[in-house]
Design brief:
disordered C terminus; alpha/beta; 14 helices; 11-stranded mixed sheet; binds 6-O-phosphono-beta-D-glucopyranose
Length: about 525
């Protein structure tokens, strides 16, 4: 039995609105091919690309073959296998802004479904600019491509972030969508939730009994979440990014989702609604570290020009399609608190940025030091005091790359004295499993086809996230508030370090072996 037979995706035509873009080429088609190849996608499921550019089915198939060869983790074994897959690929030319074109699209979809002996169940994937979401859904609805709610046909609509640019616009989008779709027909993608290591946070917490009792204010000193990227603003994204910034682009969604999974209570059932209810409660309990003065708990940074590995790299203001006087943040750090029974008083430090030393996403939970310092001596440097030789126990989820979970603890260094040596115990995915990790989009697309919305953001979650972020957005969007500059290849501006230093904390150096060795974390235990 192939893996795929364990899970049945419903029979549904996959319609990609905006199929000539990067998302379709790099993520969607490679993910669909991998699903098909592993037996998760039924053989009668057609995939229809819809876009304005003139193209034949044949040309679309050829393009997608190249994309799959380039971007898919699994390749076709033979010409015959590719042809088997490619026969379900179709392309339909549509001007997405012309409502008459949707009637022709309807006819085409019905013809294809007839040929494949498929019911008119459809998944519409909005691989389009956010400004087109509502008009396209409206046109689909008017043309009868999204039937009335009492219809037997299963219709699911997938949308990509950004879901609005603040609380008000997000509420507007949700209200408009709810005129045409029920909440359970809407799948808001946050690709972080499709990452294998992110899904494992819940399993690690609630599938083991030894860690969960420690994850609360009695034992945890603070938590750090880092989503760092080494790249700048690539692929002509300058215009989008300059309207968005690090706060909207990554913190409001990916970072807050990580925070919710780590902070939430165990759900009563492992079901979408139960899990999303618990995540929502985390967002509702979130409070800034220092409510009155925003500058004390949120720091904005922008990378300047400089050198990385001996090569000159442009500053943010010199990036393609970025205004030369932009005050947009490419880095954000924040201290937040989750004001509930479990976490009251525990700082959660969040940061994300571009042009940092390496691409790494991790969550580090730092536990309290033992109550008595029987070993080692305390030394202070400025505000920061350290027990020489000792490191607090730290549990680290390395989300990417080199996916792993590690635990740092102290041991006695062999010898005639009691000297502390921090060591690390690590579970690394590539050592424990001989199969590669599936791509986030594979899991997410399959879940849409199965009608499982666990890994998608519900509208109330989304609003709660915007509600929390809104005051910070207002400050960052104010052109009078300048971000602090940081050099490329560093972990952000000085203000980010000061944010932690005022609580006697400092950022852990995340990432590679080399970086961690510098942080004094100690050797790995093998
Ligand atoms: C996207 C952001 O949502 O996430 C990008 O728009 C960012 O700016 C990307 O680079 C990071 O995703 P990943 O999976 O590479 O960590």
């Amino acid at each position: 039995m192939s893996q795929g037979q364990l899970y049945h995706a419903s029979d549904s035509t996959i319609v990609i609105m905006g199929a000539s873009g990067d998302l379709t080429a790099r993520k969607l088609l490679p993910a669909l091919f991998a699903l098909w190849k592993e037996g998760f996608l039924a053989d009668n499921v057609p995939i229809v690309g819809v876009a304005r550019r003139e193209k034949s089915d044949e040309a679309f198939r050829e393009e997608m073959e190249q994309n799959i060869l380039e971007h898919c983790r699994i390749k076709p074994d033979s010409r015959q296998e590719w042809n088997n897959f490619a026969r379900r690929l179709f392309y339909h030319v549509t001007d997405l802004t012309d409502s008459d074109d949707y009637l022709l699209l309807k006819k085409r979809l019905e013809d294809i479904e007839f040929e494949f002996n498929m019911p008119s169940n459809r998944m519409y994937y909005m691989a389009i600019a956010p400004s087109l979401f509502l008009p396209v859904v409206e046109s689909l609805h008017t043309a009868g491509l999204i039937p009335d709610r009492d219809s037997d046909e299963t219709i699911r609509v997938v949308i990509e972030k950004p879901f609005g640019r603040d609380l008000e616009s997000a509420q507007h989008i949700s209200q408009e969508l709810s005129r045409m779709l029920t909440e359970d027909q809407i799948y808001r993608i946050d690709h972080y939730l499709g990452k294998e290591t992110v899904q494992n946070i819940l399993l690690f917490r609630f599938g083991n009994s030894i860690f969960e009792p420690l994850l609360n204010r009695n034992h945890v000193d603070h938590v750090q979440i880092t989503v760092a990227e080494s790249q700048g603003i690539e692929g002509g994204r300058g215009a989008y990014y300059d309207k968005s910034g690090a706060l909207r682009d990554v913190l409001q969604n990916h970072v807050l989702q990580l925070l919710c999974l780590l902070g939430m209570e165990p759900p009563a059932l492992f079901r979408a609604e139960a899990i999303r209810d618990e995540k929502l409660k985390v967002l509702q309990a979130m409070a800034p570290g220092h409510p009155t003065d925003l500058s004390k708990w949120a720091v904005a940074g922008q990378f300047s020009e400089g050198e990385v590995d001996g090569e000159h790299v442009p500053g943010y203001r010199q990036e393609d399609r970025v205004p030369p006087n932009s005050t947009r943040e490419t880095f954000v750090a924040m201290e937040v608190k989750i004001d509930n029974w479990r976490w009251a008083g525990v700082p959660f430090y969040l940061r994300t940025g571009k042009r940092m030393p390496e691409r790494v996403t991790e969550i580090a939970i730092q536990f309290k030091l033992p109550p008595l310092h029987l070993f080692g001596t305390v030394e202070c440097e400025g505000d920061i005091c350290d027990l020489v030789g000792a490191r607090p126990n730290t549990l680290v989820f390395r989300i990417q790359p080199k996916e792993a979970i590690s635990l740092v603890f102290s041991t006695k260094r062999p010898g005639m004295q009691y000297q502390i040596q921090p060591v690390r115990m690590e579970f690394a995915y590539d050592e424990a499993f001989d199969q590669g990790l599936p791509e986030a989009y594979e899991r997410l697309l399959l879940d849409v086809l199965r009608g499982d919305s666990t890994l998608f953001t519900r509208s109330d979650e989304l609003e709660a996230a915007w509600q929390f972020i809104d005051p910070v957005l207002k400050k960052f969007d104010d052109p009078a508030s300048e971000p602090e500059f940081y050099k490329p290849g560093t972990w952000g501006p000085e203000g980010s370090n000061k944010l932690l230093a005022r609580n006697g904390h400092r950022w852990r150096v995340p990432g590679s072996e080399h970086n961690r060795a510098q942080s004094g974390e100690g050797k790995s235990l093998k």
